[in-house]
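Weekly sync, protein design subgroup
Attendees: M.S., D.O., the rotation student, P.L. (late)

Item 1: inverse folding check
M.S. brought a backbone from last month's batch and wanted to see whether the design step gives back something sensible before we order anything. D.O. pointed out we never logged the input encoding, so this time it goes straight into the notes. Structure tokens as presented (244 positions):
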């Protein structure tokens, strides 16, 4: 049996675009806090119960280190009594199965709910809980400094974890670059076709001038004029269709 060690499941907190390992914590305990729907049907002697939701939280406690950026962020929230979005942090829980490669993580936003500080005479301590403030997201992470910090591979939000534990992959494409490229192509096509139309118009003018000065039969002149009109009309139709 391959037993997982507690130290192999590590938490990282996002601070200014970088994810720092949450060190010197004496407690990081996850509580799922499931919500149940219990009932007893009249034709049965027992009660049924279904889990209908979760209200997860994480209990925390740490010995304050003034040089630790994670401690500093939580201390700032506590000391300033910040509320709302100012008291929300992102935490990624990582199972370090492959210390040298890529590992799976679960990212989520949490509200910091402080509880107590200074409860020990041995070290200055802080304690409280993180309460869920959004959906959790499955991510891939790696580290270049021995898992002191981590980097999310690719764009964040690649998939979400539903309440039943299934992973939902986000397949919507970011079309901003595609639309910009199509706009550039349309402008280029418009310029080229405009030049074609102008050239066709100049050709028709030249043919008309030649017909007017040449000693041609009426049928020959009409044929040349019709050909010129067809060239101009075809160029105009191509120009309009390309812009639709």
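Designed sequence read out in the meeting:
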């Amino acid at each position: 049996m391959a037993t997982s060690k507690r130290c192999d499941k590590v938490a990282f907190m996002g601070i200014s675009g970088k994810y720092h390992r949450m060190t010197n914590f004496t407690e990081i305990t996850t509580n799922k806090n499931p919500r149940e729907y219990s009932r007893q049907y009249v034709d049965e002697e027992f009660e049924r119960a279904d889990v209908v939701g979760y209200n997860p939280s994480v209990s925390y406690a740490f010995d304050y280190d003034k040089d630790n950026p994670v401690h500093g962020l939580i201390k700032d929230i506590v000391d300033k009594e910040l509320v709302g979005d100012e008291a929300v942090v992102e935490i990624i829980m990582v199972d370090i199965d492959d210390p040298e490669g890529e590992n799976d993580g679960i990212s989520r936003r949490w509200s910091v709910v402080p509880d107590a500080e200074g409860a020990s005479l041995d070290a200055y301590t802080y304690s409280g809980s993180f309460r869920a403030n959004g959906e959790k997201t499955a991510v891939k992470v790696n580290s270049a400094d021995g898992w002191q910090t981590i980097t999310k591979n690719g764009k964040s939000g690649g998939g979400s974890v539903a309440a039943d534990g299934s992973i939902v992959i986000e397949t919507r494409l970011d079309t901003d670059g595609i639309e910009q490229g199509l706009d550039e192509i349309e402008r280029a096509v418009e310029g080229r076709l405009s030049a074609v139309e102008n050239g066709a118009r100049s050709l028709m003018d030249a043919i008309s001038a030649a017909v007017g000065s040449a000693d041609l039969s009426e049928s020959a002149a009409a044929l040349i004029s019709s050909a010129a009109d067809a060239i101009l009309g075809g160029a105009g139709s191509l120009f309009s269709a390309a812009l639709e």
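Discussion: The CA atoms of residues 105 and 139 lie 5 Å apart. The longest strand covers residues 103-117.
Action: P.L. to compare against the previous round before Friday.
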